[in-house]
UniProtKB/TrEMBL annotation:
The keyword tRNA-binding does not apply. It is found in: Cytoplasm. InterPro entries: Alpha/beta_knot_MTases, tRNA_m1G_MeTrfase_C_sf, tRNA_m1G_MeTrfase_TrmD, tRNA_m1G_MTases_N, tRNA_MeTrfase_TRMD/TRM10. One of its GO terms (molecular function) is tRNA (guanine(37)-N1)-methyltransferase activity. HAMAP family: TrmD (MF_00605). GO terms for cellular component: cytosol. One of its GO terms (biological process) is tRNA N1-guanine methylation. Belongs to the RNA methyltransferase TrmD family. This is tRNA (guanine-N(1)-)-methyltransferase.
Amino acid sequence: VVGKAIDSGLIALGTHQLREHTGGSPHPVDDHPYGGGPGMVMRPEPVYAAVEALSAPGRHDRRVLLTPQGRRFDQAAARRLASLGSVLVLCGRYEGVDERIRPLFDEELSIGDYVLSGGEPAAVVLVDAIARLVPGVLGSPESLAQETFGEDLLEYPHFTRPETFRDQSVPGVLLSGDHAKIARWRRERAEERTR
C-alpha cells in the first residue's frame, strides 16, 4: 500500500542518515553515557544538525521523536498526523537519545511497551498507519470508515465463502440482504469486541 502510494505520488517518503551530519567526529552518532552504564547514547550534535538542515521554514508541520516514554501512538494520532502536510520522525537508537534534543520535537510517541533494536520498526508502523489515511491511498473510502478503529471500535467479524465450513455457518443476517439489519448486526458485534 505504501509503495503504491509513493509510486503514484500520493505521498513522499525520505530517509536521512545522521552520519551525514557529524562533521567528521570520531564518534559519529553515539557516545558513552555520562555517569557510566551500558550502551551508547545518541549525540545531540548530529541530531540538531540533521533536523536544522531538514527543517527549512514551513517544510515540516510536525517533528516527532519516537521514544519508549512517548505518548502511545493510536488511530487518533495517525489521523492527526495524516492531516498534516509533512512530518519529520526521528528513530531512536542505542541506549537512548541525549536529553538535550527533546526541545527540537513537538511530541514524543511510542508504539508500545516493549523493546525494539531500533526506532526503524516503529517508524514503519507510523508511516503505514498515516499513509493509508491519506485520501486516494486506499481503493475505497469506505475501507477507512468501516475498518478497525475507524469509529474507535474494533472491527466486526468477517465471513466469506463457503457458507458453511466445518460445521460453522455464516450468520443468517449476513445472508438476508437486509442492509439495515446487517449494519445493526455489524455495529453490535464491533461494540462487543471493543468492550
